[in-house]
From TrEMBL:
It holds the Pfam family HTH_1. InterPro entries: LysR-type_TF_proteobact-type, LysR_HTH_N, LysR_subst-bd, WH-like_DNA-bd_sf, WH_DNA-bd_sf. Belongs to the LysR transcriptional regulatory family. The lineage of its organism: Bacteria, Pseudomonadati, Pseudomonadota, Alphaproteobacteria, Hyphomicrobiales. This is LysR family transcriptional regulator. Keywords: DNA-binding, Transcription, Transcription regulation. Residues 7-64 form the HTH lysR-type domain.
Length: 302
């Protein structure tokens, strides 16, 4: 079909929002339109294309085969237009917004992000941290660093790092019991966050599947980086990803007393909305971070 000046671009915007929300009512709320106006715009687009885009059922709408083909392309087109316009203005939308866990941000990203900015001097960067999984449709974040299995619907995922873990502590604390030579030695010391699910996984990998830490004093610091700080201060044994703490080991602030590493099936991933995979600032960050991490793999579309 040849696109003319009369092609209903507003109807495309309504279609994109409805396909994303899977609801005429929610699309209307987002766009400030009545449900009737949303329905009219979708019908106008269907008439223009000569294709039915939605199956309308009581209290539910679903995309037809034609709608499923069209929706991701239209979402991508609007994302590219928004990014092009934002790049001309000094607005938050013109900034690369990265969301990451506090530990990854503090122990890896903050140390290397300067090289990305040197390679992209015209691009502003904003880093936000939390332990929560963000909803890209409800936040300004362009990309996120997540831990998981890489199978988030609607997102592209690129493997970055394997998330294995092992107990670490200060050498001074280890010396109070004559050193940590076996997994059982750890039970002589205070365990930081004994309720962490990593502990039973690690003890099982170390040959002690029956270890029960439930009776120990509870402590929960909310982020691995904070637990590492407590371990450096000699407050107990933390279970950490050792590659994040090589500097602390080199400076003698932490030790990894045992070689056993465990893995819970989750890893670090770079993720972003499928519809925005070709946005220039996202492409630039994806190229940079996958080059910086030698084990990073091609994208895994969800």
């Amino acid at each position: 079909m040849k696109m003319s000046r009369q092609f209903p671009l507003n109807a495309l915007r309504v279609f994109e929002c409805t396909a994303r929300q899977m609801s005429f009512t929610k699309a209307g709320e987002e766009l400030g339109l009545t449900q009737t106006a949303v329905s009219y715009q979708v019908k106008l687009l269907e008439d223009t294309l000569g294709e039915q885009l939605f199956l309308r059922r009581p209290r539910q709408v679903t995309l037809t085969e034609a709608g499923e083909k069209l929706a991701p392309k239209i979402s991508e087109a609007f994302a590219l237009m928004n990014d092009a316009i934002a790049s001309l203005k000094d607005t938050p939308e013109g900034t690369l917004i990265i969301h990451a866990t506090a530990t990854f941000a503090a122990r890896w990203l903050a140390r290397h992000l300067g090289t990305f900015q040197l390679a992209n001097p015209g691009m502003a960067v904003r880093l936000e941290t939390s332990q929560e999984l963000i909803d890209f449709s409800r936040t300004q974040a362009d990309v996120a660093i997540r831990t998981g299995k890489g199978n988030w619907p609607g997102l592209r995922a690129h493997f970055l790092l394997k998330s294995h873990f092992t107990p670490m502590l200060s050498p001074e604390l280890a010396a109070t019991i004559g050193g940590v030579k076996t997994p059982a030695d750890l039970l002589k010391l205070r365990i930081i966050d004994p309720g962490d699910i990593w502990w039973p996984i690690w003890f099982a990998a170390a040959g002690m599947p029956d270890v029960d830490l439930s009776g120990r004093p509870s402590s929960k610091f909310g982020a691995q980086a904070v637990e590492a700080a407590a371990a450096i201060a000699g407050q107990g044994v933390a279970i950490l990803r050792p590659e994040f703490y090589t500097d602390d080991v080199a400076l003698g602030r932490l030790i990894q007393p045992l070689e056993t590493l465990a893995h819970d099936g989750t890893d670090y991933w770079l993720v972003y909305a499928e519809s925005r995979r070709n946005v220039p600032k996202i492409r630039a960050f994806r190229t940079w971070i996958t080059a910086m991490l030698p084990d990073a793999m091609p994208d895994r579309s969800a």
